[in-house]
Amino acid sequence: MGRCTVVLTHACLLWMRKYGLPREYTQGGDSVKKINMVSHGTNKPLPVGGGTLTLCGLDDFRDTLRGYHEVVTLCKYEPTYPKGSENKAYHSYFRAFHDDESKWRDAIQLVEVLLSQGKDVLLHCIHGRDRTGGVAYVVLRNTGKDHRETCTLLNKIRPRMALEWKTIMQDRRVFHESLMWGEEE
Fold it and tell me: What is the reported pTM?
């Protein structure tokens, strides 16, 4: 897995500009440009507490899963594990824009407990974006990181969501920060 080069038409570039693709991702000629896209399998573990936190969605679950992961599923559907997998699995389902704080807090607490026990946690939902990003955001904020540092770390460990998280983390920031255990900034 790794990086690939994609050739884009002018129409694609207009769409990407409209929806916020940063200019630093584009390079090349006038009507056709090349950008480097991150492919599946680039999700990186982040040391947190005594363990690690890795994020993914269902589409890159099998590429990301390792034998040492304890899997926290935040979506309705359980992932398909490779044959012979012995990963310990936890299921905490709630809808992506569900504002019942208790469901979110249960998932956050589960991830924090596993990390404090030195577990390597693979956290995912369907797209690895809304629920996964929100729970990971609060977990990282609860370790004392500020908003900017947390967003930078999320983008580093799951780079394919960087563009979407820019909007999500801005739109849902107040809600996510209401889920933190301590004082908000």
Answer: 0.75
